Amino acid sequence: MKIKEVRARRIFNSNGGDAIEVEVESDVRTAKASIGAGTSVGKYEVNAYPENINSIINLVNNVFSKELRNLQIEKFGDLKKVEDYVNGHDTSENMNKIGGNVLVALELAILKACSNEPLYKILAKKKIKKMPIPLGNCLGGGKHSGGPDFQEYLILAETKKFDVAAEINREVFNAVKGELKKRDRNFIGGRGMEGGWNCSLNNLDALNVVRKAADKVGREYKIDVRVGLDVAGGSLWNGRKYEYKNFSRGNPKKNLNSEEQLEFIRKTIRSNNLIYVEDPFHDNDFDSFKELNKEACYICGDDLIATNPIRLNEALKKISAVIVKPNQIGSLLKVKEVINIAKDNKIVPIISHRSGETEDNSIAHLAVGWECPIIKTGIVGGERIAKLNELLRISEEI
Ligand code: 2PG
Ligand code: MG
Fold first, then answer.
1. Distance of alpha carbon 65 from its chain centroid, rounded?
2. Do residues 63 and 86 touch, judged by C-beta distance below 8 A?
3. 148: which residues sit within 8 A by CB, 6+ positions away?
4. Counting Cβ atoms within 10 Å, is residue 217 exposed (0-12), middle (13-18) or buried (19+)?
5. Cβ distance 4 to 26 under 8 Å?
6. What does the pLDDT profile of the chain (398 residues) look like in tens digits?
7. Do residues 320 and 303 lie in contact, with contact meaning Cβ atoms separated by under 8 Å?
8. Fold (CATH) for 133-397
9. Bridge partners for 153 per DSSP
10. Which of 302, 305, 350, when mutated, tests ligand 1's pocket best, judged by the most ligand atoms within 8 Å of its CB?
11. In terms of Cα–Cα distance, which of 290, 377, 282 is closest to 325?
12. End-to-end Cα distance, the chain
């Protein structure tokens, strides 16, 4: 296809912030895309948007649009031409001037405008037979909510069927509400940034609530429903220690040094049969990740890797799963490279939403088209449901 016109506009995200949507008109069709941005942002991520978003909107509409006109894009690899062109306008290392979200949205819109086929088919090399399983956030803490220090309490059902797993996540979410009503005097039904419940419980009591709900639903479905955590360790690390504000009943304030944190997380995994722990340590502590990776549990790097191929190469054998967030690196080509490195090294790539999402469902297509076994999303909320419902539609076709 040939690009005819490119437009950028400001839209809103789910967190009360701005996002930028890019629309591409080609000789085949017109398509638009946007991508989520984070609240607990890792040290090694590129910038999501330039400080003055009007500057980039003007640049896209007045300069990129003219200069990209007639550019020919036929396959995924052709995005190299787009990246070379756009990055020529921004030599900063963290994409200060362009913003990672803008380049990724442009690339997604261009890919979609290549064909009338759905995006996952444009990305897939062969006929897709497998759906990703949803890792669902059912209770929030940390920078996303308040209450517990852990940022996310997650659910993963041990089934290969997407629709069953998504339904189980929803049932656990509902069951968690029932448990919170019984156990948290302050609970009034509030929800955090990614739709997970808010509560005033400490870390381990909240874990207990989620486990109880997961076990109950698991018994009903006769499927193991396992619990995971995003500790978001970088948000707790003060440069010397992990600072907890809601550690346990009677002992809310607690500081742990690196060894104590390792011991605490190890114990938490074992005594709760956790299936998944994301960022248990801060963004530079590769050694502790390596040590914890001996556990029979996915040890996942998010802020540790920042969807950066160089950082992932440093983490081989130190993690068993990696979060893939396109806007962390601001390049779809590098996102694909990260997924390839992960698969070649038996690390599970997990396509992930951000806390500040839009209704765009492209990450559902990335997970299917690039055959990622797991997608991390919220369970409720329009911007989360947009991804899940798209996966339900895709699963009918597969
Ligand atoms: C995370 C994400 C998404 P944020 O830490 O994994 O759940 O949160 O988008 O705020 O970085
Ligand atoms: Mg995370």
1. 30
2. no
3. 139, 141, 142, 199, 201, 202, 203, 206, 246
4. buried
5. yes
6. 999 999 999 999 999 999 999 999 999 999 999 999 999 999 999 999 999 999 999 999 999 999 999 999 999 999 999 999 999 999 999 999 999 999 999 999 999 999 999 999 999 989 999 999 999 999 999 998 889 999 999 999 999 999 999 999 999 999 999 999 999 999 999 999 999 999 999 999 999 999 999 999 999 999 999 999 999 999 999 999 999 999 998 899 999 999 999 999 999 999 999 999 999 999 999 999 999 999 999 999 999 999 999 999 999 999 999 999 999 999 999 999 999 999 999 999 999 999 999 999 999 999 999 999 999 999 999 999 999 999 999 999 99
7. no
8. TIM Barrel (3.20.20)
9. 139, 229
10. 302
11. 377
12. 26
Pocket (CB within 6 angstroms of ligand 1): 38-41, 151-152, 194, 230, 232, 302, 323, 352, 354-355
CA distance 192 to 197: 6
Strands 254-256 and 152-157: what pairing?
Answer: unpaired
Burial call 148-186: b when 16+ CB within 10 Å, e when fewer: bbbbbbbbbbebeebeebbbbbbbbbebbbebbeeebee
Query: Is 133-397 in the same CATH topology as 3-116?
Result: no
Q: How far apart are CA 279 and CA 143, in angstroms?
A: 14
DSSP 94-120: T-TTT-HHHHHHHHHHHHHTT-SS-HH
Radius of gyration of the chain, Cα coordinates, nearest whole angstrom: 21
For ligand 1, mutation pick of 230, 282, 379, 384 (most atoms within 8 Å of CB): 230
Q: Which ligand is closest to the CA of 141, given by its number?
A: 1
Domain boundaries, the chain: 3-116, 133-397
303 CA: nearest ligand 1 atom: 5
152-157 and 30-33 as β-strands: parallel, antiparallel, unpaired? unpaired
pTM of the complete model? 0.98
Which of the following CATH numbers is that of domain 3-116: 3.20.70.20, 3.40.50.10740, 3.30.390.10, 3.40.50.150? 3.30.390.10
Q: Is 159 helix (H, G, I), strand (E, B) or coil?
A: coil
Give the residue numbers marked as catalytic.
194, 325
> What is the amino acid identity at position 202?
N
Ramachandran assignment for 360, one of left (phi > 0), alpha (psi -120 to 50 degrees), beta (any other): beta
